[in-house]
């Protein structure tokens, strides 16, 4: 997996993390670490560009969930607890659509996984980068 980071300007500044490859048990912590780094550097909004993400596993879903928690100012869950972290996603879905993390251009096979676990109600998904950037306020 490769992650390219850029800063864009919509209505407010947005940090774009472009994820290429597979997001799975081998790589999910790298995505979390990248998000933590940009948050420490002052980012308040993250757009995850998933246009080149070819596969997402349950561990990849956990990384998306953790990034959403971090952007809401919540503590990072204990990733060593594995399934408990994934199961806590259902509680987060009840909090509504995320305001500070959004998804750009996920491939159909990735969208299928996101929809299967209910993430389509949790994350806004965009096909147009400029509209995605402008959706942050």
Write up what this structure looks like.
The protein has 137 residues and is of the alpha/beta class. Helices cover 38% and strands 26% of the residues. The protein has 6 helices and 5 strands. It has helices at residues 28-40, 58-71, 83-87, 89-93, 108-116, 129-134, and strands spanning 2-9, 13-23, 46-56, 101-104, 125-126. A 5-stranded mixed β-sheet has the order 1-2-3-4-5.
Proportion in β-strands: 25-35%
Number of strands: 5
Number of helices: 6
Q: By helix and strand content, what is the structural category?
A: alpha/beta
Radius of gyration: 13 Å
Within the CATH hierarchy, at the fold level, what is the topology?
Transcription Regulator spoIIAA
Biggest β-sheet description: 5 strands, mixed
- Succession of helices and strands: EEHEHHHEHEH
CATH homologous superfamily designation: STAS domain
CATH class: Alpha Beta
Distance, first to last CA: 30 Å
Q: Which residues sit in consecutive blocks of at least 5 with pLDDT less than 50?
A: none
Helix content: 25-40%
Task: Give the averaged pLDDT, no decimals.
Answer: 89
Second CATH tier, the architecture:
2-Layer Sandwich
What is the count of structural domains?
1
- The largest sheet has its strands arranged as 1-2-3-4-5
Tell me the overall shape: globular
What is the gist of this entry?
The protein is of the alpha/beta class and 137 residues long. Helices cover 38% and strands 26% of the residues.
What's the arrangement of secondary structure elements?
Blueprint: E1 2-9, E2 13-23, H1 28-40, E3 46-56, H2 58-71, H3 83-87, H4 89-93, E4 101-104, H5 108-116, E5 125-126, H6 129-134
Parallel strand pairs: 2-3, 3-4, 4-5
Antiparallel strand pairs: 1-2
Helix pairs in contact: 1-2
């Amino acid at each position: 997996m490769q992650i390219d980071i850029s800063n864009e300007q919509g209505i407010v500044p947005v940090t774009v993390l472009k994820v290429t490859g597979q997001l799975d048990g081998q790589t999910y912590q790298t995505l979390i670490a990248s998000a933590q780094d940009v948050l420490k550097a002052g980012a308040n909004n993250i757009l995850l560009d998933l246009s080149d993400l070819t596969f997402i596993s349950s561990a990849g879903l956990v990384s998306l969930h953790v990034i959403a928690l971090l952007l809401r100012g919540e503590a990072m869950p204990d990733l060593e607890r594995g399934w408990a972290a994934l199961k806590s996603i259902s509680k987060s879905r009840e909090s509504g659509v995320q305001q500070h993390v959004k998804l750009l251009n996920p491939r159909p096979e990735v969208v299928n996984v996101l929809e299967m676990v209910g993430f389509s109600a949790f994350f806004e998904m965009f096909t147009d980068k400029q509209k995605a950037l402008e959706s942050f306020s």
